[in-house]
Amino acid sequence: MRIKLITALSAGFLLAVVALSQAQTQPPQQRAAAPPAAPSAGPRGVAVIDITFILDNYPRLKQESDQFKADIENMGKQFKGEQETILKNAEKLKTFKAGSPDFKKLEEELAQKSSDLKVKASLQEKEFAERESRMYLKAYKEVTGVVKTYAERNGISLVLRFNGAPVDVNNRDAIRAELFKTVMYNDPSIDITDQVLAELKRQTPLPTATRPQQPPPRTR
User: Fold this and answer.
1) What is the CATH number of domain 2-203?
2) Within 10 A of 18 (CB to CB), how many other CB atoms are there?
3) Helix or strand or coil: residue 43?
4) pLDDT grade, residue 204 (50/70/90)?
5) Residues 148-165: pLDDT tens digits?
6) Could you tell me the residue ranges of all domains in the chain?
7) Rounded to the nearest 5°, which phi and psi values hold at 37?
8) 46 within 8 A of 160, measured Cβ to Cβ
């Protein structure tokens, strides 16, 4: 019977919900705090920045991510409730004789609801994916704006991205990324990650009764 489609649909959608929720709760990377540049050093022409660390600890992005996670969980609950309603109504088929008009009518109704629910789940999943992309793009543009302002103010003509997180020796993808990374070494004094993050935090309005939290120490 076509009602069986519901089980596969539910499993796929709920797994996606769990995956998206977990993606929002991954702990931020850690790396050693870069020592501040000596005041007498003057502006540097080149700087590096750990964008991943900044996005993990950007307060405004975290606020949006928390709301995003909550919306995913609520939608998952709503979807599960609709699925359970359909399955409960499917039990009524047992009270009708197979092939009878009432049986056929209820079967068609349940099949239609199953189809509608599948379409709804697909559209919702697409909407969440697009919303997540827009959320991170917006944050990245904000970071880029602060980097540009900081670079112009300090006479920096080139800012390179790098990843200051320690390499997970058990992760092949992480090892591969380490082997092909653009910045092999940099003087810690040209790392502007902390300065840019501090400016982003300064520009982020804090919720009422929220105390600012310091990001975890960075370790290389």
Assistant:
1) 3.30.910.20
2) 13
3) coil
4) confident
5) 999 999 999 999 999 988
6) 2-203
7) -70, 145
8) yes
